[in-house]
Design brief:
Layout: E1 10-23, H1 32-39, E2 48-61, H2 72-87, E3 90-91, H3 92-95, H4 106-120, E4 126-132, E5 138-141
Amino acid sequence: MAGPASVARFGYISRVESFSACHRLHSIALSDEENKELYGKCNNPNGHGHNYKVEVTVRGKIDPKTGMVMNLTELKKCIEEVIMIPLDHKNLDKDVPHFANVVSTTENVAVYIWDNMVKVLPPGLLHQIKIYETDKNVVMYRGE
């Protein structure tokens, strides 16, 4: 029977960061009236803001030499590059080219973060993006 040292152990690591951004929920595929009805006050032409909390979770084998799934310092650098620099204190619709033609819902923000995190993380490591838009509204995305 194999000993515990020979069994691959998997772990999950999450890092939480907060960023502030404004946006307007408005779909170019809908009329102004449809947008107002669908998005309500979130369709305000002047936009509105959030203090988002983002939790990035990676999953992988715990390295028997380092005891880590991933160095948290490296994960922090990836989050800075993908989330903080392009999104913090920005107007998502005007300052982030991706949202020029994509509605900046929290679901789409999670997809945007996922798509960019997988570019900077080791392959297969990203497990989940979880965004708290408010204390009561939470979105989770796992690349599906």
